[in-house]
Write a structure and sequence with these properties.
With about 450 residues, this protein is α/β, with parallel strands linked by helices. It has three domains: about 30 residues, no CATH class; about 200 residues, P-loop containing nucleotide triphosphate hydrolases (Rossmann fold, 3-Layer(aba) Sandwich), CATH 3.40.50; about 150 residues, Ribosomal Protein S5, domain 2. Helices cover about 25% and strands about 25% of the residues. The strands form five sheets. It has a nine-stranded mixed sheet, with helices on both faces. Strands 13-14-16-15 form a four-stranded mixed sheet. A three-stranded antiparallel sheet has the order 2-1-3. Helix 9 crosses helix 11. The protein is elongated. Keywords: ATP-binding, DNA damage, DNA repair, DNA-binding, Hydrolase, Metal-binding, Nucleotide-binding, Stress response, Zinc, Zinc-finger.
Length: about 450
């Protein structure tokens, strides 16, 4: 008699295997490979339902357009990321690393909303109500219209929503809430799928906005099934460096607004504060110009930010000179050093220790900062300080040509607004010519001579 075999299938991507494995070989998800025989459901035929006139399909031209209304949360930087504010009935997912400040930000959002007269329900599935109350007292987020509940059962949370009748619900977090109707521990794929789908259905039925806090894995992706990101309307990522107080909120998915907006925040002892004008966060405050520095106008989403790049070039006595970078790509810096040596005549870089860093802890990943990095290195070699009104934007090719960066008009407008009178961003300019313009401006600054704008 032939031996019966069973296949194991991943519930996320459908990958099959002849034996059970803990991790899917296709989507690399843990705990999603289950036995088909145990999870097989009998095939059922669904009879057609008679459609009433109210639910009948209509031509798309006959359907009216209802404008999506946003109500402000009271935090302009958070509203910027959401596309103008919170939409009634929207499901928002906010993810981030542990300790980055997700709960602090949402508690501030809940307090601002309660201060406008709205009834807000904050459900904490990780902390007790006393712990949340202590944080609210420290950050000044106490309000009588803000209701707290510490629950981990989905049925109890739904009962709290029916009893309080809130206008905004915050669940912290979706991976720690479990449903009694589904087997498995909280945080498992089946539990997260059931909890998220139930809460989103309540949001749509009651026209109630719900904000869900999501955990992340070691690689930074949202924990749980990928279906969670498909179900919600908005996916926001809260990120930041623990060594600095700066935090960023980015929209990875937004059905009601753009996905290239960035919100800036700063963690303080009294909670989290929004930074409406971050132009001074990434610039040093030296009174006199210093060699080895150059300012670039970086583009983060749709926001142009001035960032200062610092470089230090010293003679090395070691057989292998050091290359230390912080806030920039190391391979990109190595390429720029080769271009400077080959195309601009800086042959002494091969025997020097080179250090490149950014101010304020921001990370530059776009190629538009190439020219500023190259000028900062050349400035350190020549011991010529760039003027405080000088900025450089452009991508450097291996041939030594300067390419115009994306959104050049927006960068130039932001540079003019911040007082930069000399901005090197010309297209098809060779690196030698860019260096000549930069050091001409440096000499003119010393001689107090007006420099023509480029």
């Amino acid at each position: 008699m032939a031996r019966s075999t069973s296949n194991f299938r991943c519930t996320e991507c459908g990958w099959t295997s002849l034996k059970w494995v803990g991790r899917c070989g296709e989507c690399q998800s843990w705990g999603t490979v289950l036995d088909d025989a145990e999870n097989a459901t009998p095939t059922r035929t669904v009879a057609a339902v008679k459609i009433s006139d109210a639910r009948a399909a209509k031509p798309i031209t006959a359907i009216g357009v209802d404008e999506v209304t946003h109500w402000p949360s009271g935090i302009s930087e958070f509203d910027r990321v959401l596309g103008g504010g919170i939409v009634p009935g929207a499901a928002i997912l906010l993810s981030g690393e542990p300790g980055v400040g997700k709960s602090t930000l949402l508690l501030e959002v809940a307090s601002r909303a309660a201060a406008t007269g709205m009834r807000v329900l904050y459900v904490s599935a990780e902390e007790s109500v006393n712990q949340v109350r202590m944080r609210a007292q420290r950050t000044g987020a106490l309000h009588s219209s803000l209701y707290l509940a510490a629950e981990v059962d989905l049925g109890v949370i739904l009962g709290q929503i029916n009893q309080v009748q809130p206008q905004l619900v915050i669940i912290d977090s979706v991976q720690t809430v479990a449903s009694s109707s589904i087997d498995g521990l909280a945080g498992g794929p089946a539990q997260v799928r059931e909890v998220a789908s139930t809460l989103i259905r309540v949001a749509k039925d009651k026209n109630l906005p719900i904000v869900l806090v999501g955990h992340v894995t070691k690689d930074g992706s949202i924990a749980g099934p990928r279906l969670l990101e498909h179900l919600v309307d908005v996916v926001c990522q809260f990120e930041g460096d623990r060594q600095t107080s700066l935090r960023f909120v980015r929209a990875l998915k937004n059905r009601f607004g753009p996905t290239d907006e960035v919100g800036c925040f700063e963690m303080t002892g009294d909670g989290i504060a929004e930074v409406t004008d971050p132009s001074g966060l990434f610039l040093s405050h030296a009174r006199l110009p210093v060699s080895g520095t150059c300012v670039t106008i970086a583009l983060d989403g749709r926001r142009a930010l001035p960032v200062e790049v610092q470089a230090l070039v010293v003679k090395s006595t070691a057989p292998q000179p050091r290359r230390v970078v912080n806030g920039v790509d190391g391979s990109r810096v190595a390429m720029l050093l080769a271009v400077l040596e080959k195309r601009a005549g800086y042959g002494s870089l091969a025997s020097s220790d080179i250090y490149v860093s950014t101010v304020g802890g921001i990370r530059l990943t776009e190629p538009g900062a190439d020219l500023a990095i190259a000028i900062a290195i050349a400035s350190s070699v020549n011991e010529r300080a760039m003027p405080v009104t000088f900025a450089a934007v452009g991508e450097i090719s291996l041939a030594g040509e300067i390419r115009k960066a994306s959104s050049a008009k927006q960068r130039l407008a932001e540079a003019r607004r911040l007082g930069f009178t000399t901005v090197v961003d010309a297209e098809a300019l060779h690196i030698r010519e860019a260096m000549r313009i930069a050091f001409t401006a440096a000499v003119a600054e010393v001689d107090r001579v007006k420099v023509p704008e480029f």
